[in-house]
Amino acid sequence: MEVYNYREIRTPVFEETALFERGIGEQTDIVGKEMYTFSDKSGTSITLKPEMTAGVMRSYIQNNLGEQQPLVKVYYIAPMFRQERPQAGRMRQFHQFGAEAIGGLNPAIDAEIIALSLEVYRSLGIKNFELRINSVGCALCRSKYRDALQKYLYPHLEKLTEESRKRFETNPFRILDSKDEEDRVITKDAPLMKDHLCPACAEHFTGLQKYLTLLDIDFLVDGRIVRGLDYYTKTAYEIISKDLGSQDALAGGGRYDLLVQELGGKQTPSVGFAAGLERLLMVMEKQKLNIGPAPSPRVFIIAADDGGRQWSLTKAIEMRRRGISCDIDFVERSVKSQMREADRQQAEYVIVIGEDEINRRQVRIKNMVDGSEEVVGFDRIIDYLLSDGDRGEKGKTS
Ligand code: AMP
Question: What does 317-355 look like in DSSP terms, one character per residue?
Answer without folding.
Answer: HHHHHTT--EEE-SS---HHHHHHHHHHTT-SEEEEE-H
